[in-house]
Amino acid sequence: MKLIYIISEVNKALGFEWLYDNINKEQFDITFILLGKPDSAFEKFLVARNAEGIQINFLRKCDFLIAFFQTFLILFRLRPHIVHTHLIMANIIGLTASWILRVPKRIYTRHHAMIHHREHRSGLKYDKWCNWIATDIIAPSKNVRTILTDLEKTPAQKVHLLHHGYDLNYFRDVSKERIAVSTKVIHLSLGLLPDILSGKGFNMLSRHSKLSLRTIQGRS
User: Are 211 and 220 in contact (CB under 8 A)?
Assistant: First the structure.
């Protein structure tokens, strides 16, 4: 059975790494479509596993139409039985393309909750569109399920409560090097706290955090 995951704007993605390592590959023929910046940590993970992954550059809003048509052509060529999308741009592009192509199962995981009801109300129309064209929606919490069914009037039979899973061994077997790097980031954050509270220090903290993340990825 051909299964395509479409994911937007992620770099390091432990949940998707665990998913790939544990999914039944005899039952599912898996392809990942990644929308976002190239050369991400997750793209490197797929390359290391010899997994089938397709990178589509999505750096600015003006890339939307090109990314949509590229995704559409890939789905048209691969003819999946299932498309499962994660995060807002992947939801809009992936679900719309698979709806046009009449992919039998069009699934998305709702990772956000109330942000389009409170802060960015213009995004609510995209949520409702995705709710309408999806055949199934995964809610990681009861709160998200309630938002979908009560506030957005999504048919309850579409919404499935499925909590996130964690590989606890990953957090038990942590190397001393990873602990040292994480501790350094925490100490730096505490040292910058007065500047952060006054509106300064964000750029320095951001640069240091990115450097530390690359260090952790290189040693893990």
Answer: no
As a whole number of angstroms, the distance between CA 131 and CA 93 comes to: 13
pTM here is: 0.81
Q: Does 202 have pLDDT greater than 70? A: no
Q: What is the CATH number of domain 2-161?
A: 3.40.50.2000
Q: Where are the domains of the chain?
A: 2-161, 174-219
d(CA 84, CA 5): 5
Beta bridge partners of 83: 4, 106
Contact 107, 135 (CB under 8 A): yes
Amino acid 44 reads: K
What amino acid is encoded at 49 in this protein?
A: R
- The neighbour count for residue 199, using CB atoms within 10 Å, is 7
